[in-house]
Design goal:
heterodimer; A: 452 residues; alpha+beta; Alpha-Beta Plaits; ten-stranded mixed beta sheet; five-stranded antiparallel beta sheet; globular; B: 121 residues; two-stranded antiparallel ribbon; elongated
Chain lengths: 452, 121
């Protein structure tokens, strides 16, 4: 516990993000005298996919890019006491911990002290029965792929206070990856709602990686960003009162200013007075943002209220198949040919399966499944378009007909179609509920190193 | 003499970003400056936004106003055709929907339209 400011960097905003932003964050933290490196890698659906991988191979089910994220910086982090905190454990935090031990051994490093947070996974049969009752759902438990409660910052904080170098979690709320280290560092009490609200929003500003530092922001000519090819990942400096600033790793591209900070502050927020996490109800109603230096902003006016009484749970289950297929038409009457191809497929299989038809290049992602917007007219100047047909069905063979019908357009469709691509994927559906905190056995342990 | 108002797309007055949770999309709208924010308050309302997204049939549209950062946050429920797992839309998250909102036509004075055209921020 200390009153010295805490630096927390975040080097990924999702599973699949760039992995080469980590080194500049680590080097900046070292230059600042130390801090915590976090990786956010667990979007809502990523965990369900990880469970499917774990079923196939009990040693997998953690972040597939773990080696690329941790390997190149492990030595520097251990040498300079940079703690690593991440949800990259996904469906298998124990296996992720073992993988990091192996990385350390391979590099001739001392064995790190790795803590693993448990309790979020609720896929035991009696837990599933309980959840289905809470959800008033009668789906077959065998269809459930994953069920996880969102844990908070407490276990991360305890593990760090007990000397963990690395904390590996499964499902925790994203901002808890930052709040946990802040709780451990400053010794804030778990009902200090004001400071918990501030620390949570510091985590919120970081959790999407470069989305606060110039990523997902640029509109050429309107809101430009320099150095998109080497964007800097963000770092927060948090003080003992919970006030914080956000900046980015040194010698990188990107921008941190009022405009990038506002976009991230409101990202995936609903009621600004009630940003719910397992730790606190954060309140940004009166938040202000000030540019205090180039590529640096300070946030003030944030506060917090009592945490929600229950924990949120997401359940994913198998629910049929999605068939998708595309074909391109370009040049003279391209749009008309694509529309005719779409109408033809509707006539052939529209009675078997609900279809969505897009004319990519003229109207696609803005449109609705029923085609209301398309009926108002398509962009008339488009002459290089791509027909996309998509359909969902419980039976794989029916969903597969989407691909077969688009492929057959090569001979039986309008003139000049080319470039067919098809895909058939299982469809995951989701249910959400809340459950009492006492029904979740949240905790942490130091993972024993297993040598095979 | 009062000159007639002119129409400009919303992106001349604001920027924003869309995010998703389940079948709900939230779209932030951040005014470029104080004068723009006043126009947003008058014209970009729950009713006008619900109408602009009519083809996506939102079940509920809520506007939250954050005057200290001259921003507003729209929460549009039921517009993602089921959301990231369910939807047949290519953009299952509705990531691009902020750019649909930013094309909404807004009435401004010719003087403001002149000032805002081709600005770089």
């Amino acid at each position: 516990m200390t009153s010295k400011n805490l630096f927390v960097g975040c080097a990924t905003g999702f599973s699949g993000d760039r992995t080469d932003g980590t080194k500049p964050v680590v080097e900046t933290l070292i230059a600042l005298g130390g801090g915590v490196l976090t990786f956010e890698t667990l979007a809502e659906r990523t965990l369900a996919r990880a469970q499917i991988e774990k079923r196939k191979n009990p040693l997998s089910g953690y972040e597939p890019l773990l080696d690329d994220l941790v390997g190149p910086v492990l030595r520097r982090c251990l040498d300079h006491s940079i703690k690593i905190v991440s949800n990259f454990g996904a469906a298998n935090p124990q296996a992720a911990a073992q993988r990091i031990y192996a990385l350390a051994r391979a590099q001739g490093l001392r064995a790190p002290r790795i803590a693993v947070v448990h309790g979020d996974d609720l896929t035991q049969p009696e837990q599933l029965q309980y959840l289905l009752k809470r959800l008033s759902s009668n789906i077959d438990p065998a269809r459930i792929v994953s069920a996880n409660a969102y844990l908070g910052a407490q276990q991360i904080s305890e593990a760090l206070q007990e000397g963990a170098d690395i904390v590996v979690t499964g499902r925790v709320s994203d901002p808890s990856l930052t709040l946990g280290p802040a709780l451990a560092h400053f010794g804030w009490s778990l009902d200090d709602w004001h400071r918990l609200g501030c620390g949570t929003m510091a985590g919120h500003m970081l959790e999407c990686g470069t989305q606060v530092s110039g990523g997902y922001f640029c509109v050429p000519g309107q809101k430009p960003v320099e150095g998109m090819d080497r964007l800097g990942f963000p770092i927060a400096e948090i003080d003992s009162q919970g006030n914080f600033s956000v900046f980015k790793a040194a010698n990188t591209g990107g921008r941190v200013d009022l405009r990038t900070a506002k976009e991230q502050l409101l990202y995936e927020v609903h009621d600004p007075a009630k940003y719910l996490t397992p730790d606190v109800t954060a309140d940004i109603t009166n938040a202000t943002i000030t540019e205090t230096a180039k590529d640096r902003v300070r946030l003030d006016g944030i506060t917090g209220h009592a945490r929600p009484p229950e924990l949120k749970v997401n359940v994913y289950y198998d629910n049929g198949w999605i068939g998708e297929a595309e074909i391109s038409y370009a040049g003279f009457k391209a749009k008309e040919r694509a529309m005719l191809a779409g109408d033809t497929i509707r006539k052939r299989i529209g009675h078997l399966i609900d279809l969505r038809v897009d004319i990519i290049g003229a109207l696609s992602i803005f449109g609705d499944d029923a085609g209301e917007l398309a009926a108002r007219g398509l962009n008339t100047s488009a002459n290089d378009v791509r027909l996309r047909v998509a359909g969902v069905h419980m039976q794989k063979e029916i969903a597969e007909k989407v691909s077969r019908e688009v492929l057959a357009l090569y001979c039986c469709g309008p003139a000049g179609g080319g470039g067919v691509r098809t895909s058939l994927k299982p469809r995951l559906d989701t249910l959400s509920c809340t459950i009492p905190r006492e029904s979740v056995d949240a905790g942490w342990t130091i993972a024993g190193e297993e040598r095979s | 003499m009062i000159r007639a108002m002119t129409e400009v797309p919303l992106h001349q007055l604001a920027h924003g970003r869309a995010g998703d949770k389940g079948n709900t999309s939230n779209i932030s709208l951040i005014a470029w400056d104080t004068e723009c924010f006043q126009v947003l308050l008058e014209q970009v309302t729950e009713v006008s936004v619900a109408a602009w997204f009519g083809h996506r049939h939102p079940t509920k549209v809520t506007r939250y106003v954050l005057p200290k950062i001259e921003s507003m946050n729209f929460v549009l429920e039921g517009i993602l055709d089921g959301g990231v797992n369910d939807a047949l839309n290519l953009d299952t998250h509705g990531k691009g929907l902020s750019f649909w909102l930013l094309d909404m036509p807004i009435k401004v004075s010719p003087a403001l339209a002149d000032r805002l055209s081709n600005q770089t921020y």
